[in-house]
Design a protein that fits this description.
With 303 residues, this protein is an alpha/beta fold. The chain has one domain: Glycoside hydrolase/deacetylase (TIM Barrel, Alpha-Beta Barrel), CATH 3.20.20. It is built from 10 helices and 10 strands. The strands form 2 sheets. Strands 1, 4, 5, 6, 7, 8, 9 and 10 form an 8-stranded parallel sheet that branches. Strands 2-3 form a two-stranded parallel ribbon. α6 links the parallel β5 and β6. It is globular, with a radius of gyration of 19 Å. Bound molecules: zinc ion. The site of zinc ion has 6 residues, from β5.
């Protein structure tokens, strides 16, 4: 399943790389109007039904939290797809395959350079809720949900006690060519975070409101019900999103969302439009470290 847009398609690239402008929004004060217990129950039920069934409004919305005062280090979010030998030259050039040997070397070199893997949830909590991070944090994200990610990437991370972030297409769970539920549960047991990568991996920007809502909120509800784990992260299929898509992701209850915009994630970024660094088949470990370090120093110099 292809995940990255054709780089020659400038329209896709521009939209995928579009940085969302947003303003902080304070939470609405709680109502002080006294209501009876039965009325509160009816209101709660109605609110849940509304949230699950109502199509997404066209209007854009602000960030998930008021993050003024957010602080913390920028974090590289590495993006992987297949961790396996590419079947042919075209696959090798697609940027979606990393060989198991090379993946192991990448992890080893990152560890020697002092990096420690964390989940995106840990990053969000460090930036916006007073949590802590290791000195050199890195997020290793894996898109779509392929058996080779469990077979070839998970053992390497397990050996170091490192978590990954699995961006799972809900329809691929237990499907042919996808990951089995028990495999994902084992990853969760090893500390992995599961993110939703929509229900069926289609371009969300081209959908009407009702289908968009099923893809975004439906994938979250499906993964929560099948895996029994919190789903706080979203990953836009093909990296494509728009203000309307972002508003749906916010409304569905996600705290973070990953794009394919290239760069280091920073606490001042819109948490629903976080950039990543793709790791392709031909990238050496030396180049990977240089990319992570250069991005870090550039960010530090810009501050
Ligand atoms: Zn994908």
């Amino acid at each position: 399943m292809p995940c990255l847009p054709d780089p020659k398609d400038s329209r896709l690239r521009i939209q995928a790389e579009q940085r969302m402008s947003w303003v902080s929004r304070r939470p609405t004060p709680r109502s002080i109007v006294a209501v009876g217990p039965w009325r509160r129950v009816r209101f709660a039920v109605a609110a849940v039904v509304f949230a699950v069934t109502w199509p997404v409004p066209m209007a854009t919305a602000g960030p998930t939290r008021d993050n003024r005062g957010s602080a913390g280090p920028p974090v590289p979010i590495l993006m992987f797809h297949h961790v396996a030998l590419a079947p042919d030259t075209a696959a090798r050039r697609s940027g979606l395959w990393v060989s198991p040997t090379r993946f192991e070397r990448h992890v080893s070199v990152l560890a020697r350079a002092g990096y420690r893997a964390v989940t995106l949830d840990q990053v969000w909590r460090a930036w916006h809720a007073g949590g802590s991070l290791p000195l050199r944090p890195v997020v290793l994200s894996f898109d779509d949900g392929y058996p080779d990610q469990r077979r070839n990437a998970a053992p390497v991370l397990r050996a170091r006690g490192w978590p990954g972030v699995l961006n799972l297409v809900a329809a691929r769970l237990n499907a042919a060519g996808g990951l089995r539920r028990q495999d994902v549960l084992r990853l969760i047991g090893e500390g992995w975070e599961i993110g939703a990568h929509a229900a069926t991996h289609h371009d969300l920007t081209r959908m009407r409101d009702a289908r968009l809502w099923r893809e975004v909120a439906g994938s979250r509800a499906s993964l929560i019900s099948q895996l029994g784990t919190p789903i706080r992260a979203f990953c836009y299929p093909y990296g494509r999103f728009s203000p309307r898509v972002r508003a749906a992701v916010l409304r569905a209850g996600f705290e973070t969302a990953m794009t394919i915009r290239r760069g280091l994630a920073d606490p001042s970024d819109d948490p629903l439009a976080l950039p990543r660094l793709n790791v392709g088949a031909r990238m050496s470990s030396r180049l990977l470290i240089r990319m992570v370090r250069t991005s870090t120093s550039r960010m530090a110099a810009a501050r």
